[in-house]
Amino acid sequence: MVVGCQWGDEGKGKIVDVLAADAQIVARYQGGANAGHTVHVGDDEFILHQIPSGVLHDGKRCLLGNGVVLDVRQFFDEYDALAARGIRLDGRVGVSGRAHVLLPFHRALDKAREAAAAEKIGTTGRGIGPAYEDKVGRRGLRVGDLADAAGVERWLDGALTRAEAQLRELGEDVDTVAAETRDALGLAARLHALSTEVGVEILEGLRAGRDVLLEGAQGALLDLDQGTYPFVTSSNTTAAGAPVGVGIGPTAVDDVLGVLKAYTTRVGEGPLPTAMTPELDEQVRQWGGEFGATTGRPRRCGWFDAVVARHAARVNGLTGLAITKLDVLDQLPEIQIAVGYRVDGEETSHFPDAGCGYDAIEPVYETVPGWKASTADARKLEDLPRAARAYLSRLQELVGVPIWMVSVGTRRSDIIRV
Ligand code: IMP
Predict the structure, then answer these.
(1) Rounded-to-integer distance, Cα 110 and Cα 65, Å
(2) How many whole angstroms separate alpha carbon 323 and alpha carbon 261?
């Protein structure tokens, strides 16, 4: 399993792409088209929102589990765009019959609520919250339901009536919502044709000796329960959400690889305790290309936060770490690491819940020397400058989980396996 351990955008897409070379099945277990997994293959860049990052390896089976909210239009836009770029998909993509279908009215509601909210979450506007609300409210539409056209029509009447009433209440125009939703449902038969028993496929694959990769989206601090609530997404991004989200038990999982950027970023509203000064924030954003893959929004940049990383290690039960974008720090003369927090004058090594107010968090920093040299060509730890190795050792010590991989660039080959 590969999970994000900060606020998303840790570089999971690249790590999954690298590991997918050795797996036969790759499955997404939560989230939807809010994800933006960027993968570079040679000179080509692919940004995947809804289809697992493993799709770029020929022949791998790519599954979307029941925990995903499946944006039917985005899914096929992406599917067709990949096919047009020469990726062979026939027979390779399967979706759970239990996955919930996300439709244009969910997106409209998400955007309208954000526009009207006094305290904004800064969502991606992809309809994620409203789709999960329908799921938990037991009024959702699942992929398996799409076989019954008359049933879908009955469901649609109720869903549109509810959505239009809410949109009107929020002062929105509802003219196009029904037509767009019906248009998206025109893809229902095509989607239903891909439905499969995801949990059964995974367990049968494991029994036959195949390797399976579960691909997380977003990060631990965006987890509905373990993150910086209410500035979170609407699913369980952490490891425990994965078995639930694909329909297997937790005992089937061997390893949980946590992906951490060598620094921290956040897009959307909510606390980022280790935020850098405005000048450094701008500099690191440019070096790291820190702009949202889904929305293009600039990401805020901060120092590595060991409190966040330890929290993520605990709630995910991590067995290994992948540290990404080490190369982005190459030019800094010195680097800060938050080793703890002070909250209302008291030192703590745990991530607080909102009780204290996230604004009360003051990071306790340790300053370490930078390496002022390129790490881009390093392929083993010994190739790295001494200060870069010391930085990685310190991160490993603070998180208490061994580093298995270090990424030093965007291409598949820019990786150190430890
Ligand atoms: P939602 O998931 O669109 O509802 O957005 C909720 C919060 O999660 C917002 O702060 C988003 O910016 C953030 N978010 C959602 N998906 C991602 C992602 O893939 N990377 C980074 N942030 C994300």
Answers:
(1) 23
(2) 5
| 40 Cα distance to chain centroid | 17
Choose the residue to mutate in 16, 74, 218, 235 for probing ligand 1, maximizing ligand atoms within 8 Å of C-beta: 218
Calpha distance 300→307 (Å, rounded): 18
Q: What is the pLDDT of residues 302-316, one digit of tens each?
A: 999 999 999 999 999
Strands 403-407 and 320-324, sheet pairing: parallel
Q: How far apart are CA 83 and CA 86, in angstroms?
A: 5
CA of 370 to the centre of ligand 1 (A): 31
Q: Rg (Cα) of the chain, in Å, rounded?
A: 21
Burial string for 276-288 (b: 16+ CB within 10 Å, else e) reads: beeebbebbbebb
Span from the CA of 416 to the centroid of ligand 1 (angstroms): 29
Whether ligand 1 lies within 6 angstroms of the CB of 126 is answered as yes
pLDDT in tens, 47-104: 899 999 889 999 999 999 999 999 999 999 999 999 999 999 999 999 999 999 999 9
| Ligand 1 centroid to residue 245 C-alpha, Å | 18
Angle at alpha carbon of residue 149, lines to 235 and 156, rounded to 5°: 55
